[in-house]
Structures are given as C-alpha cells and as structure tokens.
Amino acid sequence: MSELPNCPQCGSEFTYEDEGRLVCPECAHEWSATTAPAADEARVVRDAVGNVLADGDTVTVIKDLKIRGSSGVVKVGTKVKGIRLVDGDHDIDCRIDGVGAMQLKSQFVKKA
Hints:
By secondary structure, this protein is an all-beta fold. The protein has strands at residues 16-18, 21-23, 30-32, 45-46, 52-53, 59-61, 65-66, 73-74, 79-80, 84-85, 92-96, 100-104, 109-111.
C-alpha cells in the first residue's frame, strides 16, 4: 500500500483518496492526487510584456480600469508602488493613491 501525503492545509495524516482526489477528513480540504503541490515550487507572475513580478515591485497601469461599484477610473500611467502577489484571478494586491486598496490583474500592468 502506498503512503498518502499529509494534508497541505492542516497537516493531518488521516488523508484518503476519493475518485482521484485526496481528501482530509479533519478540515475537508480536497486536492488533486496527481498534482500534489510541491513545497519548493513557486508560482511565477508575469506582467503584460512578460517581465517577472515580485512582492514590493512598482508597476504602471497600461489601460484605463473601471472601478467596480464606483464611477471612478484608474487612469493609464498610474504608478502603483509596493505590490503584493496573491493567488486568484486578480493576482496583485495594492494600494493606489487617491483610490485605496485594490486588486489588479497582472495582464493590465507593466513593471516600472
């Protein structure tokens, strides 16, 4: 019998396999059995022109971006300092002067 990996979320050793997915009975976390996440594997986020982005970088907005729930717009050329990379569709967390905290997609910025 093969040894199943511990849960990546809570560390429980009581994981089991269910229809090709691994499941943790303690925290109900599910993940793919074929692509178990590697601890040393880092996600690479690239800007609109292909430069690799990192936490703390300064980027420039390359397109007017409408702000949802508001009539405001983030204009082309707006510099955003001290970005933070996060998981998800909008992969940049930042604070824009005059607008506040926002999440941006990396495809609409370029490294400054």
